Amino acid sequence: MGGAKKTAPKLSKALKEAEERKKEAEKKKEITKSTTASVVDPKVLDQIKKEVPKMKFVTPYQLYSKYNLKYSVSKDILESMAKQGALKLMKSGRRVDIYVPAA
């Protein structure tokens, strides 16, 4: 009953393993996702307005991944550009809207 008693070498080995697990957990915590911008910098917005009309088509995901924006912010930017007349909504689905330059 009760199992085997832990001797000093077993205890020290167990402590070393616990410390290694803590170090690995800290390393994993250090790796963080890149932060996305919820407020768009005017420089980035100007760059988007220059580059988007040159593209064949634009989706919110393209802006999201290229400019490191939040997905909802990229959708808002494309909607506002469509209202201004720079883009035209080509196809609207349940999840993705596809815009083309209005030229």
Give an overview of the whole structure:
With 103 residues, this protein is mainly alpha-helical. The protein has a domain at 42-101: Arc Repressor Mutant, subunit A (Orthogonal Bundle). 53% of the residues lie in helices and 11% in strands. It has four helices and two strands, in the order H-H-H-H-E-E. A two-stranded antiparallel ribbon has the order 1-2. Helix 3 crosses helix 4. The longest helix has 23 residues, at 8-30. The protein is rod-shaped, with a radius of gyration of 26 Å. The termini are far apart.
Q: Please, what is the CATH homologous superfamily of the domain at 42-101?
A: Winged helix-like DNA-binding domain superfamily/Winged helix DNA-binding domain
Low-pLDDT stretches: none
Helix count, DSSP H or I runs of 4 or more residues: 4
Main pleated-sheet profile: 2 strands, antiparallel
Approximate shape: rod-shaped
SSE class = mainly alpha
Give the assembly state of these chains.
Answer: single chain
How big is the Rg? 26 Å
CATH topology of the domain at 42-101: Arc Repressor Mutant, subunit A
Query: How big a fraction of the residues is strand?
Result: 5-15%
The level 1 CATH classification of the domain at 42-101 is: Mainly Alpha
Tell me the strand order in the biggest sheet: 1-2
Helix and strand string, N-terminal first? HHHHEE
Helix fraction by DSSP (H/I, runs of at least 4):
40-55%
Number of strands: 2
State the CATH architecture of the domain at 42-101. Orthogonal Bundle
End-to-end distance, in Å? 84 Å
Mean pLDDT: 84
